[in-house]
Design brief:
Layout: E1 3-8, E2 12-19, E3 24-28, H1 33-42, E4 46-51, H2 57-60, H3 63-69, E5 74-78, E6 90-92, E7 97-100, E8 103-109, E9 118-122, E10 127-131, E11 134-135, E12 138-139, H4 147-158, E13 165-168, H5 173-183, H6 188-202, E14 210-211, H7 212-218, H8 227-236, H9 244-256
Helix pairs in contact: 1-3, 5-6, 8-9
Length: 258
């Protein structure tokens, strides 16, 4: 029961991170407080913290409400977001640790989508919560950083054990995989994953979590060294050179207009 998905808004995910021993739990990215509180009640757990990945309203818009409705709840979020995380009580930075009951989480700074974006990694759960930096087969738009910043942030996530489960901020998987196939149409693993995602969504199932290993095989924004992907990007823009960051930036631009 350690991780429970709580759908938010139209395509967002919040997650309950539950310490089974103490029945304490945190929620990652609260957009709609009432749905989160109802989910905690359904699973008979005590909400003690909100773990905010970044300041955007679809990830933090429920902070004020949950803070008012759950007395004493701690609101974690990056100090590098410069005060933009609502109801923040516990500012964090890259490398910090926090506790949910007996579970220990580590903060990983992964800026670019926003300047203070963080992930929360729980080694005991073999899980990382990546917000809008790494999606299943995708990455977030580069709003506040540069392409090189996003490449570095994604690399930090890929250093986690390959079996690490990736819980991201949105249900974007099918479209992400469809786009990835425009760059690597002959990637058999990618084709199979797309077919799986289409089937899962047609049955009303979610496509999270993924794994770090799966992302390395199917996520175009981790695959700048793929000859097929490079050729596809260069076909779209012959001026792109060999630099992996330039390849990434052009792939991200193509996705922006997909």
């Amino acid at each position: 029961m350690a991780i429970q998905i709580v759908p938010q808004l139209s395509d967002n995910f919040a997650y309950l991170v539950i310490d089974d021993a103490s029945k304490e739990c945190a929620v990652v990215d609260c957009a709609e407080a009432d749905k989160v509180i109802a989910a905690a009640k359904q699973h008979d757990v005590k909400l003690t913290a909100v773990l905010t990945t970044h300041w955007h309203g679809d990830h933090s818009g429920g902070n004020e409400d949950i803070s008012a409705k759950v007395p004493g709840i701690k609101i974690y979020g990056a100090s590098a977001e410069n005060g933009r995380i609502p109801a923040l009580t516990n500012p964090v930075a890259d490398g910090d640790t926090l506790k949910v009951g007996a579970l220990e989480g580590r903060v990983i700074g992964i800026p670019a989508h926003t300047n203070g974006h963080v992930a929360y990694y729980f080694p005991k759960l073999n899980a990382v919560f990546t917000g809008d930096t790494m999606f299943v087969a995708g990455c977030g738009r580069v709003f506040e950083g540069r392409a090189a910043t996003m490449v570095d942030s994604l690399k930090k996530l890929t250093t986690l054990p390959e079996s690490t489960q990736v819980y991201c901020g949105h249900e974007y998987t099918e479209k992400n995989l469809r786009f990835a196939l425009t760059l690597e149409p002959n990637n058999a693993v990618l084709k199979a994953k797309h077919e799986w995602a289409v089937k899962a969504r047609s049955e009303g199932k979610w496509t999270v979590p993924s794994t770090i290993a799966d992302e390395k095989r199917t996520n175009p924004f981790l695959r700048s060294d793929s000859p097929e992907l490079r050729a596809s990007v260069k076909k779209a823009d012959p001026k792109v050179g060999e630099d992996p960051i330039a390849i990434f930036a052009k792939a991200r631009e193509l996705k922006d207009h997909y």
